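Chain A, query sequence.
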Amino acid sequence: IKAKSLIMEKNRFYLFGFVKPLLIFFIMTAVINLIFVGLDNIIPQIVRVIVDQVIIGKNFANFYLMLNSLLAIGLIRGVLGYAREYFCDTAGSRIGCNIRKDLFAKIQKLSANFFDRINSGELMSRVMDDVNSIWELFTYVGMLCMEIAIHVTVVIFFMFKMNWKLAVFPTAGILICGFISVMMNKYIGPMFGAIFEENSKLNNMVQENIAGVRTVKSFLREKYETAKFRKHNLKYFELNYKQSKTFANFNPIFMFARVLIPLIMLVHGGIFCMQEKITLGELTAFMQYSMNIAW
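Chain A, predicted structure.
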């Protein structure tokens, strides 16, 4: 276990060496994400003012200001959305490119004994699939995780600031969904590893058969190689099917939570509104926040 921990620590340090020169891109992405999410969560507050002061209070003095504010926020979020995609994708693509070049250069320096011990399909998986996974981590996946973390934190802050009694319900729902996600990861995680391993075997088998196609045909091994490939291909299919089935079993829970959380907010918020503990505008803002946090 200690040796494995040391290897993981070494790999993290090695990976950070590629991230460090591009750290400014990720800092810019984080700052833009913070502003982007902040503007997104200001919209329910503007809607709250429109409902309470304009629709109910019949005060149209700031109505056009509110509408222009919504329009301006939409335009700014569009620009910021492009900017964060640019910074994150640029940094992630450069990291993936540099890792692949470094890995390929390392492979060229390895001894012939190394290639006798490891098959070419596994090398292809390391150079292509594993590097692509790192590229996805530092582009779309990393940006999405960052956005979700900031988004949930800001939404919970606004809800507790408005009314902590109502904020308890969506917060509890998010915690339950988080627990279910952890449970799902225990099933999904090993499946990803098995799928990558089987994909490596398929790549190696195809490479060997194409490179040695004359030998296969000379010894009439077509049927044997075809049956061998079908066996691994079937296993690859079964692993992907099992993974999809696991997602299918868990996804309805999250979809149900997306509907249930706003519904609970509507019922309890409606009661609070009738008791005049909150205004109709605050209830409208809470509904928007509850739908955003469920997303």
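The chain has a mean pLDDT of 83. The chain has nine helices and no strands.
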